[in-house]
């Protein structure tokens, strides 16, 4: 729950409150205050408001909802990252609107104003996206036999779906709406009994062995169970295992040539470290498994099979909250066909509904018949998506940040509640403020660097009086990013059309990194020029 909204029917007021346990409470409080809002707000619902007052009330509700629903990256980049119409990100906009609506739905008090506000929110939800209205190109030559058998199996076991599975250009299999789906419609519903979770390990012959192993996690147990169950012809989940890919093309399966292309990127370290860790874990498991070959047939527990299972869990599992309150890693047949988007339709899922003992995937924005229905896997940067899922999302990923390795200054003068312990940058085209003292760069980072240059107070007057600090800050940043750009080397001369899938993906990633770095370099240079040509206010 990101915030609370209560309707007090006796007074006809609607009250909003930012919860104090929000991890970014102070930052959000400041952002709210910049919009003229407090952490507690009320809206009067009495009588019927004029259209003008209704618009004001709606904007207030939306501003509050947006800020309450910001995540860490969005809070960090703050106000400067809004579009001119005030949108922080599509994810945030969808979350804010569906949050407002979901809290209004159960309200019994029906005033004209409340109904008008509800209608305004619904209408805005319909307008939110359209950014990725790309045509769905279905590969009709792909017969979807395994997929249809899985869906049929699901339906025989209580799965309800308004999606059909198809092979879609650029996505592998994906889920397409079979009818017009509106906000709140449930695209897919999976009963608990059709979800693969740790419960299956507890009831298997593996458990008495695995439970005695120090440090054995339920995730590892489930992984080992899956590796064997996949080959069990009697498995309850046979249609699911049959529908899985033979090979997962994630960063963990990148070959030498792709790894060479990634030279100079942080992604190279990320992939190498992740792979090393998996190898270490596998080497630790083998002596244990080989002591119980009757339970763990060694031909099913080779390194290749282990890597396959890890890639399966990284790219297809979901964290689900069960009625006992436990968060469990699960494989979810049919739902595993949903692809990710920065402009998702489904953002709120992951909790088993107690009344129906099922997991529901409701829409947070409409998806018309024939459109691909997208999920949000989470707010991940492209290097994470490439390493663990094996794709780069379409469009500008607002979570594509470059973390900066900086020492946190222990300075008593800093506003401790508002200071950040880590800093980051991203493509500066995502900022709408390239003016003096902003330059398209994030304010928390600029203030951190100003402090590092000895400037503790950052009012406009202070900044105007210390323009040499501004130049120093931008020159420092520019030199750091020139080094990073140099590390990336020149654009690769490989023939991309004929390159392997992993080399193509590595090249695409590097190109995106270059675009981000060059936008930062351009912003530093433009900022220095702006300062040199500026005339301080008299
Ligand atoms: C949960 S599965 C989704 C179904 C998958 N497409 C399939 O054919 O089985 C996750 C995988 O789908 C692919 N995927 C998901 N979102 C994608 C996207 N936006 N673009 C391209 N591939 C995507 C990636 O291969 C990822 O590892």
Automatic annotation (TrEMBL):
<dbReference type="InterPro" id="IPR001214">
    <property type="entry name" value="SET_dom"/>
</dbReference>
<dbReference type="InterPro" id="IPR050600">
    <property type="entry name" value="SETD3_SETD6_MTase"/>
</dbReference>
<dbReference type="GO" id="GO:0032259">
    <property type="term" value="P:methylation"/>
</dbReference>
<keyword id="KW-0949">S-adenosyl-L-methionine</keyword>
<protein>
    <recommendedName>
        <fullName>SET domain-containing protein</fullName>
    </recommendedName>
</protein>
<dbReference type="GO" id="GO:0016279">
    <property type="term" value="F:protein-lysine N-methyltransferase activity"/>
</dbReference>
<keyword id="KW-0808">Transferase</keyword>
<dbReference type="InterPro" id="IPR046341">
    <property type="entry name" value="SET_dom_sf"/>
</dbReference>
<keyword id="KW-0489">Methyltransferase</keyword>
<dbReference type="InterPro" id="IPR036464">
    <property type="entry name" value="Rubisco_LSMT_subst-bd_sf"/>
</dbReference>
<feature type="domain" description="SET">
    <location>
        <begin position="161"/>
        <end position="378"/>
    </location>
</feature>
């Amino acid at each position: 729950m990101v915030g609370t909204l209560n309707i007090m029917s006796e007074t006809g007021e609607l009250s909003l409150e930012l919860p104090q346990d929000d991890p970014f409470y102070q930052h959000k409080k400041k952002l709210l205050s910049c919009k003229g809002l407090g952490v507690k707000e009320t809206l009067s619902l009495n009588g019927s408001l004029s259209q003008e007052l209704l618009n004001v009330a709606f904007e207030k509700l939306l501003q509050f909802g947006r800020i309450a629903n910001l995540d860490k990256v969005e809070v960090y980049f703050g106000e400067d990252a809004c579009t001119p119409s005030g949108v922080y990100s599509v994810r945030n906009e969808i979350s804010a609107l569906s949050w407002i609506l979901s809290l209004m739905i159960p309200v019994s008090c029906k005033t004209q104003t409340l109904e008008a506000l509800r209608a305004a929110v619904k209408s805005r939800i319909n307008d939110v996206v359209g950014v990725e209205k790309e045509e769905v190109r279905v590969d009709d030559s792909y017969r979807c036999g395994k997929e249809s058998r899985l869906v049929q199996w699901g339906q025989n076991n209580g799965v309800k779906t308004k999606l059909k599975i198809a092979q879609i250009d650029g996505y592998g299999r994906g889920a397409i709406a079979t009818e017009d789906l509106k906000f709140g419609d449930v695209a897919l519903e999976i009963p608990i009994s059709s979800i693969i979770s740790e419960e299956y390990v507890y009831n298997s012959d593996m458990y008495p062995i695995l439970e005695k192993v120090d440090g054995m996690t339920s995730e590892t147990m489930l992984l080992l169970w899956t590796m064997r169950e996949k080959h069990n012809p009697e498995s309850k989940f046979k249609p699911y295992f049959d529908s899985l890919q033979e090979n997962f093309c994630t960063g963990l399966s990148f070959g030498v040539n792709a790894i060479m292309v990634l030279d100079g990127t942080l992604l190279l370290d990320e992939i190498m470290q992740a792979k090393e860790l998996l190898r270490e874990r596998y080497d630790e498991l083998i002596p244990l498994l080989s002591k119980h070959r009757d339970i763990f047939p060694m031909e099913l527990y080779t390194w290749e099979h282990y890597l396959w299972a890890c890639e399966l869990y990284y790219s297809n599992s979901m964290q689900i909250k069960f009625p006992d309150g436990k968060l469990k890693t699960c494989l979810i047949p049919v739902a595993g066909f949903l692809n990710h988007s920065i402009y998702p339709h489904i953002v709120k899922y992951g909790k088993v509904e107690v009344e129906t003992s099922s997991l529901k995937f409701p829409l947070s924005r409409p998806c018309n018949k024939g459109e691909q229905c997208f999920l949000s896997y989470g707010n991940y940067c492209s290097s994470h998506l490439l390493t663990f899922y094996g794709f780069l999302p379409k469009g500008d990923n607002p979570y594509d940040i470059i973390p900066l390795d900086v020492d946190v200054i222990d300075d008593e003068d800093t506003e401790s509640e508002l200071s950040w312990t880590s800093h980051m940058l991203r493509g500066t085209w995502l900022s709408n403020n390239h003016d003096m003292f902003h330059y398209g760069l994030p304010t928390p980072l600029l203030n951190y660097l100003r402090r590092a240059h000895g400037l503790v107070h950052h009012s406009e007057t202070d900044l105007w009086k210390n323009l040499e600090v501004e130049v120093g800050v931008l020159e420092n940043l520019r030199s750091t990013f020139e080094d990073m750009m140099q590390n990336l080397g020149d654009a690769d001369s490989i023939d991309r059309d004929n390159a392997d899938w992993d080399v193509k993906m590595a090249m695409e990633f590097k190109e995106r990194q270059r675009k981000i770095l060059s936008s930062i370099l351009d912003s530093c240079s433009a900022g220095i020029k702006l300062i040199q040509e500026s005339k301080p206010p008299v």
